[in-house]
Amino acid sequence: xxxxxxxxxxxxxxxxxxxxxxxxxxxxxxxxxxxxxxxxxxxxxxxxxxxxxxxxxxxxxxxxxxxxxxxxxxxxxxxxxxxxxxxxxxxxxxxxxxxxxxxxxxxxxxxxxxxxxxxxxxxxxxxxxxxxxxxxxxxxxxxxxxxxxxxxxxxxxxxxxxxxxxxxxxxxxxxxxxxxxxxxxxxxxxxxxxxxxxxxxxxxxxxxxxxxxxxxxxxxxxxxxxxxxxxxxxxxxxxxxxxxxxxxxxxxxxxxxxxxxxxxxxxxx
Length: 269
Prior knowledge:
It is built from 12 helices and 5 strands. With 269 residues, the protein is of the alpha/beta class. It has 2 domains: 3-10 and 194-264, Helicase, Ruva Protein, domain 3, CATH 1.10.8.60; 28-191, 3-Layer(aba) Sandwich (Rossmann fold), CATH 3.40.50. A 5-stranded parallel β-sheet has the order 2-3-4-1-5, sandwiched between helices. β3, α6 (139-144) and β4 form a beta-alpha-beta unit. The chain is elongated.
């Protein structure tokens, strides 16, 4: 399956699962996330980033964070699950390189706050706590997570939080028990599916950074990728890569809709 790279003349793997922020195509939703991140960091509040699976939420946030120098911003990233608040606090402690010797919620909370205070006061840094897959958090976690933001008798928090997850994340914040956390949300955005024109630009951009300047996708293939992926980037990557493999196997210079159809049979869409 890797022979398609030599066939089309790629220098690097096209449509990779991870890509350097500088090589990302700047889509409108990504710029919107950057603006909201700046605003949230300045206020010390909470921002909400939602979208369907594969819409590029984490990638867009990573691109926004890349505009800050490491000496200016410390990011603490965890991937949440359906565990308890104590377990989430332990994840945060590990992400902050703190030794966890106790399961006491109050002690864990104090350790996290002290570490954040050292970064903000001692190193003069901004701190961003990123909770990915936040839609998996339990309702009782949403009910108490706001206490982590309380410093100095509920004055302005010295750090910001980005809650990233699927659409159901916003639904969980509408629960009455979640209102203390929801009231601290100062910015929110939902990543939309990209348009067909944006898809064409996206495909050409990724071919170019992989070393191929000419277009390899016919208009019917672009339409098939856009429709087959519902405008979601992860599925588009898989269909585009699979379509090139199918085209190379047939000795075709241009990827057509039939090649995308063949690629789709290998995926669960």
